[in-house]
Write a structure and sequence with these properties.
Blueprint (H helix, E strand, L loop, with lengths): L1 H12 L15 E6 L4 H17 L5 E5 H14 L5 E3 L7 H15 L4 E3 L20 E5 L1 E2 L10 H4 L4 E2 L2 H13 L4 E5 L12 H9 L7 E5 L8 H9 L6 E3 L7 H6 L6 H14 L4 E8 L6 H14 L3 E6 L17 H24 L5 E9 L5 E5 L5 E5 L3 H7 L3 E9 L4 E5 L9 H6 L1
Parallel strand pairs: 1-2, 2-3, 3-4, 5-8, 8-9, 10-11, 11-12, 15-17
Antiparallel strand pairs: 6-7, 13-14, 13-16, 14-15, 16-17
Helix pairs in contact: 7-8, 8-10, 11-12
Bound molecules: S-adenosyl-L-homocysteine (SAH) and iron/sulfur cluster.
Length: 443
Amino acid sequence: MNVYDSARMADVMAPEGYVSTETADDADLVILNTCHIREKAAEKVYSELGRLRDSEEDGTMIAVAGCVAQAEGDEIMRRAPYVDLVVGPQSYHRLPKLVAGAVAERDRSGRSRVIDTDFPAESKFDFMPAAQVSGPSAFLTIQEGCDKFCAFCVVPYTRGAEFSRPVDAVLNEAQQLVSDGVIEITLLGQNVNAYHGDDDGLAGLIRKLSVINGLERIRYTTSHPRDMTPDLIAVHGEVPQLMPYLHLPIQSGSDSILARMNRKHGADDYLKTIDALRAVRPDIALSSDFIVGHPGETDADFDATMALIKNVEYAQAYSFKYSKRPGTPASDMDDQIPEEVKSDRLAALQALLNEQQLAFNKQTIGAAIPVLFERRGKLPNQIAGRSPCMQAVHVTCPTEEAADRYFGKTVPIHITDAFANSLTGTLDDGVAAESTQRESARA
Ligand code: SAH
Ligand code: SF4
């Protein structure tokens, strides 16, 4: 979401004459987009600000955006008084005005301290220009905020109440992206499957997107298990453009920890959802987030998480040590887990997840997989892309000209080797580069 937000901030500033620079050193204005989800991410902001101050020439404006700005606006101005502007995630459409205000304030008094961390009544989406396309794959935010209040999480406080963009606005943006050459759209939201901008929810939106000509791949992230409705599960069996990969975080495999987290579902409910998804889409690959060391987590609770992972067999997953967030209920719970216990549990959990990820990747050796090439690789003539299941795939083309030709297209690739984080393959001889992913899926 922050990648998308950063791009939209650049879009908003473009009409003002601002263009992106390669390095911060070349910039007149640096906007640091920040994340508040764990303490480490939030603390990094201050070290990064110190680095910026030391390396910047006098006169460079420094702005802080994102959730740290939202949560710690005054604190940022206190700890880093050289920051000119603090802007929360709901006010990005006001950036040109805010920057102009900061410039004027500086001209007047030598320094500026502009802060906008409101939750405005108007929606920023109605005031931002169309997203600029850069490559065949694009993000599209359809939902923001969260009303679920998991005990450990700051999102409901930093991103505010749940909000869904109207279905017509989303369809227009999607159509525009496809007209500009996009063939893969990832729908974004903190709780994307709680989307209610369409009467039929996210399922309805996906069905409507599936008739856009030229849109080959649809994905959505991040989902909450409680919002995986039967209709949304059914869409996974119905819409071939919906890729067979789902990030569905459970956080813990223990019912008592799930209850303390206020997740409002048990491990069994989650496993039933996975069974239902696999019934309609047997090749679906699964991913999750896990938190180890949530307050109150016993060895038995942790074992339940390990057992759940063994049961599901994930294609990949993200895992974190529980991090105390100010103002959240879990930060006040008295049975906090010692740091060493968290570290040991995280190491064991990640070893199991890495093993599963490697096994998942190894299964593809010998198969022909449609890969959407979206980047040039680091090596000469190399291109990089994603499989339907989100695996990174690297291919070295015979010539530079071939690499250019396949860039931005979906091409069947013969997988020759698999590693923990990527696959390598060769162009499947005899198949035209123009063949689309749907054609190859049919084949
Ligand atoms: N809405 C999504 C998650 C969004 S936050 C969901 O409900 O699953 C992204 C991830 O950050 C979470 O899934 C969780 O694993 C992690 N996270 C959030 N708060 C955390 C905290 N206090 N400590 C450690 N990890 C946390
Ligand atoms: Fe945070 Fe996700 Fe829970 Fe909302 S549902 S509070 S975003 S973890």
